[in-house]
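Hi V.,

You were right to ask for the full record rather than a summary. Here it is.
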Amino acid sequence: MALRSARDSQIFIIGCGISGIGAAQKLLKHGFHNVHIIEATARSGGRIRTGKLGDNIVEIGANWIHGPSKENPVFRLACDYQLLDKESMSEENQAIDIGGHPLFVPNWFTSSGRKLGPETMGPVVEFFMNLLERSQQFHDSGGEPLPSVGEFVKAEAERLAPEEWKEDQGNTAIRMAMISTLLKLECCVSGTHTMDDVGLGAFGMYKTLPGLDCTFPEGYEGLIDNMMKELPNDLVLYNKPVKCIHWNYTKNGPDTKGMLFPIMIECVNGETFAADHVIVTIPLGYLKKHQNTFLSPSLPLHKLHSIQRMGFGTNNKIFLEFEQPFWDEDCELIYLVWEDETHLADVVSDVKMSWIRKLSGFTVLKPTERYGHVICGWIAGQESEYMETLSEFEVLHSVTQLLRLFTGNPTITPRKLLRSQWFHEPYSCGSYTYAAKGCSEYDIDNLAEPLPLKGSNSKPLQVLFAGEATQRSFFSTVHGALLSGWREAERLISHYTPASGSFSSKL
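Predicted structure:
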């Protein structure tokens, strides 16, 4: 049987999102030349996807660089490729620490068509952010009094609000309704149906980086395009969904030109590929759906249990373009407050009739000179998944009625609409990972653990796992995905690096 050098190892990466692209780049830089990416769809970028609304560039997927500062590898790459504006790259911008919640200039509209001012609503936002900050502290301190962030925030709001707003009791009801709105928007941030599903003890596991979140003027896909230019043209095999990774062959494995391999990748179309190592970068949503069939032998039980415990939800966007704005010139965020939602219980109602109530906030695309008058509505959870099943006309009709109700203007009519549909994307099955009730960093570590497990006599590092769900501090982000791809590439580089360090793993 022929012998191969380390650099001849056949390495396949499943998924051409930023995690897979980052892993491929790093492996190539270190002299591995038999590296391929197998991608289920016809495009690269995964959950980074830029679209068009008329002449406007809009982000169907990832929206911001969260924490654009030197520690953020996505920010560093974006600067290297000169994809950001001067303001985003400034030292001042990098020094602002917002704790993960951008400080948008807001407008508040209520379901009776009233527009409220900052003197009424400003204190509520501050009060709510304080409760969220306290929710994050239980990760380090322990002793969480309730299982979920939602239960904690609602209980504390009801306990503290009467004292907090005793000077202004006339506004207590509308302020409690505003907390309902903020909880819905927080579902969009976390990518969950309800904050009652987000674990209180695990909430603080997510770490923020300094810097005022920024966007790509020409679209996030520009980052993917630049990264792809550094890879050989034939490295990605498109339109090849993987059916099963058969691993741990010790004999009778795939034999290519007299060489035996421990892994055979079987695609849906019947094609097979022999490999020494596979880096799996597929979304957690897809893995949840196909956890019993994607690997053979199947995933070890503790890995399966961690996949089940971790949260993966849907957050969608609805872009609307208008002839004229109904919001103030300096407005960056529009809140919709239902005046009848003064009790903080999650209303279990008919999703078909009331899905639109979950659409509780819009960001205004800035600058106006670039976008015209475009806003982006955010909707998460089961209502978001139901919205995907409706026609574009039905969504436009519901959103138009909603905005007419809240502005009190019966003639408001959006010119164009574009929406994302991440739950029905067959290879994503949702948007991103959240720290569900009952899960911890050990679940993320379990998911990231390579196969075979330590202590096995089989060939090591056959199946490796990357993607945002495997990054314990930055899950749900683009930088988390990229860091995880680099981590698994480095794992292989270190494995083949002699102790003397002649095959260095420094990038």
